[in-house]
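Dear Dr. H.,

I hope your travels went smoothly. While you were away I took the liberty of generating a structure for the chain from your last submission, since the lab meeting agenda had it listed for discussion. I wanted you to have the full record in hand beforehand rather than looking at slides cold. The sequence, exactly as received, is reproduced here:
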Amino acid sequence: MATAFGPAWFHRTVYPIGHTHGDRPLSSALDLAPEALARVAGGPGAPLREALFLDTETTGLAGGSGTLAFLVGVGYFEGEAPDTHFIIDQFFLRDPGQEAGMMTAIDGRLGGHRSLVTFNGKAFDIPLLETRFVMSRLAPPFSELGHLDLLMPARRMWRGSLASCSLGSLEFHLLGVRRDQQDIAGFLIPQLYREYLQTGDMSDMSRVMYHNLLDILSMVTLAARLSDAFESPRNAHEHLAVGRQHARAGAWEQAEQVYRAAVTRMADEAAGDGRAEIQRQLALALKRQARHADAAEVWEQLADGEGEIAVEALTELAKHYEWRAIDLARALLCARRALRLAGDATAREGLRHRIERLERKLQVGPT
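The corresponding predicted structure, in token form, is as follows:
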């Protein structure tokens, strides 16, 4: 295609809205309400119908002025039901001298879209593209767009249950995506582009473009899966992540409900691993609601354990019995038990001061 700053080459792929990628059709992303996406993003949400899914393939991972984004794929929904399609336009830099034309074409494709959806785009793709726009003496067009970077909520949701939150790991463990032999490993892509510039042979570039297509399709599926997890957590780890999201937003009642559901689920699944942390978060949510007696009931359950959570529980109980329930003997007992378990020097010092104060109040001798 021709632009005011020279030629730009792009390839378009059109998918029917019922196309299945992984375990769900692309249409599942259109069913997501903006408020559900807002919970995923941890901020304002916009309908995915108005979003642009963006992914780049580059000559390296270092960023900076020496790194080119030689392939930029953008996916978007177009048309009204029942004639909606998902379109992916891939802008390919056939010659580094044509970068200004490519950037101009990408700028034109952004029109009509309210937000971007990326995977690690805030840290990598968008800063790199902004640099390439500046290097082409063009104004970067991204500042006015909302931006949902799926890596951030994915890490919040699954870092406790997955060893890696890379897109490939999420595809395999959560999205039901299985890449075939046409795909290519990401670490090979920079070298293949350098070979293309030397030979002009596009055969390997077709595999790179296929890799880019799958990345964009997986972002659509991942957005839907994340929304599902926030709306209906499937396991205790997801309950914990959703509760923390509510807590970050100051929605303590919602956080409490999610944590209680997680405790129940872990009991039903007979899975003790992680239960103490969920109970800890539940107690903190109750404390933030000034429901100190309810929080104390949860701290009592945790006080019989070991490690830092038990020390925290006993310390919180010592505070509760000293200042609210007014049972100084019980407060002293909790503080002494906490001191026996505590390994942190700062915590031990604070507990000693608390014990000394309680002993003075009770007029008992040192232990």
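Two observations you may find useful: The chain is about 55% helix and 15% strand. The first strand starts at residue 2 and ends at 3.

With kind regards,
E. W.
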